[in-house]
Amino acid sequence: MKQPSQKNIDKMWNYARAYAAKSGTVFHPDPEVTEAVILGLAANIDEVGRPLCPCNFYPDKAAEAKRREWICACDEMQKWKYCHCLLFVREDGLPITEYLPEGHEGREIYGLVTDPTPDKGRALGRVLERRESEGSPSA
Ligand code: SF4
Question: Catalytic residue at 85?
Answer without folding.
Answer: no
